[in-house]
Amino acid sequence: MSTTKSLLIVYHSHTGGTLQMVEALRDGAQSASDVQVQLLHASKAGPADVLHADGYVFATPENLAAISGLMKDFFDRSYYGALEQINGRPYAALVCAGSDGSNAARQMARIATGWRLKAVAEPLIVCTHAQTPEAIAAPKQIALDDLAQCHALGAAMASGLAMGIF
After folding, report:
1. CB proximity list for 106: less than 8 A, separation 6 or greater
2. Residues 159, 27, 93, 115: is their CA dihedral positive or negative?
3. pLDDT in tens, 96-144
4. Tell me: the pLDDT tens digits for 21-36?
5. How many helices (H) does the chain have, and how many strands (E)?
């Protein structure tokens, strides 16, 4: 029986901002400890992946004051298949937003509450300040200090899993 813990990172990214955030988080998680880290696009992740993991990071852009459609689809496809089987497992959330991000973070927190997951960090929300249709649709470049926060969160998640804190 393996004692190696696993961290599942499920994300969606349309303009590249969320992808940069999860890549930094993944790098932090991989550098911190001997935790198996799996990075899956929301369209590829499902209930079997959720059941297999010991902890989670959910990452989404905020679209129209909500989680992205593909993240919603992931939760819709996975929710009942994992319900009552992952109680108490740790999670964190990342949101790449144009101006706010709090509603997307709140939506993920409500879903995680239904799964009875335990939040181990405040949602990490990165605001790109994209406000025009052109800026919203444009590829994003996340600032280095924001990426450093993502990296640190990944390291903390992996370390907590490895040490049995979570």
Report:
1. none
2. negative
3. 999 999 999 999 999 999 999 999 999 999 999 999 999 999 999 999 9
4. 999 999 999 987 689 9
5. 6, 7
Helix (H) or strand (E) holding 115: none
**pLDDT tens profile 3-57:** 799 999 999 999 999 999 999 999 999 987 689 999 999 999 999 999 999 999 9
Measure Cα distances from 95 to 13, 25, 31, 40, 164 in Å.
Answer: 10, 12, 22, 16, 26
Helix (H, G, I), strand (E, B) or coil at 92: strand
Sign of the alpha-carbon dihedral angle for 64, 86, 47, 155: positive
How far apart CA 113 and CA 40 sit, in angstroms, is 22
Residue labelled with tokens 């909500």: 66
What domains are there in the chain, each with its CATH number?
6-163 (3.40.50.360)
Instruction: Say which DSSP state 136 is in.
Output: H
What pairs with residue 10 in β-bridges? 40, 58
The two most distant CA atoms of the chain are separated, in Å, by: 53
Rounded distance between C-alpha atoms, residue 115 and residue 100, angstroms? 25
Distance, CA of 161 to chain centre: 15
pLDDT at 1 over 50: no
